[in-house]
Amino acid sequence: MYIVEQFYEKVLKKEPPYYAKYSILTIVWKPIRKYINIVIIPNVPFSNLRVALYRMIGFKIGKNVFIGMKCYMDDMAIKNTVIEDNVTVSYGTYFACHGKDQGHTTITIKNNAYIGMRCNIISGKEGVTIGENAIVGAGSLVNRDIPSNATAVGVPIKVLDNKRELL
Which DSSP string do the residues of 80-108 spell out, in sequence order? Predict the structure, then answer.
């Protein structure tokens, strides 16, 4: 992509965009990977195959993980989504590792965590971590860290104490 870089620098007199440094292979692979990630994988009816396909395109996913159908993993920064061992991600959960004026930050889901169905997990400007043995209620918006062994629900997420009251 040397030509694109030179065009920006010499003709447009601007800093070349980040994608001007991509190889031809990367330029060809990215839309194929996006299609696999958005169209094919969420509709595969077998969990083990879904997880294997997510791993194949580069997501870091541990052992004994269940990812439900219709989940959408952010493919702008695949290495920034880390799912550890024995995690359950229920149906229809969305992951977002990037946004306006935030760059690409990390989503980490620790061992034995449970994510209820139709949750949205957004990493924000500093990233987000869901702790070990944490439970996230269905339909929640995870926009900040959840401590280990906690139960959290709501939009935006709120952590419950041991008596199941909002803190």
Answer: GEEE-TT-EE-TT-EEE-EETTTEE--EE
